[in-house]
């Protein structure tokens, strides 16, 4: 049994396949899910698990070189939270974000019920 880190089997397995440049999307429970690509659905009930809980867990395991959020969420607590933990955060329209989500190697659906609580993470390398 794993001692620490992400215990969810499908999410842990998906993380193990990520390489430099791969895209991981952490999504609220309202983001339309793309038809292609693996989706790890962690949503249990509204708010559980939260966007911040899931993103914190992922940031403990991933090297991130950049991130993208939706412009519509500018000034929100979620955007401020993302900006405080990541460098290289840019923004695009929510419509563009939904198209970008369809390119993700992994999409993680949270139970977050806050509008625009979504982020696309571009994986980096630790060297």
UniProtKB/TrEMBL annotation:
Source species, domain of life: Bacteria
Active-site residues, record numbering mapped to chain: 20
Transmembrane segments: none
A matching Pfam family: RbsD_FucU
Enzyme class: isomerase
Binding site for substrate: 28, 94, 116-118
Keywords noted in UniProt: Carbohydrate metabolism, Cytoplasm, Isomerase
Localization terms from the record: Cytoplasm
Record field: catalytic activity: beta-D-ribopyranose = beta-D-ribofuranose
Pathway(s) this gene product operates in, as recorded in its UniProt entry: Carbohydrate metabolism; D-ribose degradation; D-ribose 5-phosphate from beta-D-ribopyranose: step 1/2
Protein EC: 5.4.99.62
Principal localisation: cytoplasm
Gene Ontology molecular-function annotations: D-ribose pyranase activity
Self-association and partners: Homodecamer.
Matches recorded under HAMAP family: D_rib_pyranase
Protein role: Catalyzes the interconversion of beta-pyran and beta-furan forms of D-ribose.
Family: Belongs to the RbsD / FucU family. RbsD subfamily.
Protein name: D-ribose pyranase
